[in-house]
What does this fold into?
Amino acid sequence: MNSEGLDLQFTDAALRTVSRIAYHINEAEENTGARRLAQLVELVMSDLSLDADEYKGQTVTIDEEYVLARIGNRVKEEVNEIPTSCPYLALI
It folds into this structure.
């Protein structure tokens, strides 16, 4: 993103949210470890990656709300079952 002139910042809450969702999905399905985390980060970043040139010179902050808005429906579509113990189940 930096090559496009986009300064990307992640809040601690955003990173924790992605990590926790990855953990819960790994618990419910095949445990792919860090690959699951990378997959979720890729989903969060997909819109920005495609349109990075439109954000040239700007700073974009990824927060918990942004994470849930970007991956919530995609996670529901791609994951067979999210465990009810996932604290983000009600939000996604």
Notes: The mean pLDDT is 78. The CA atoms of residues 7 and 59 lie 4 Å apart. The longest strand covers residues 7-10.
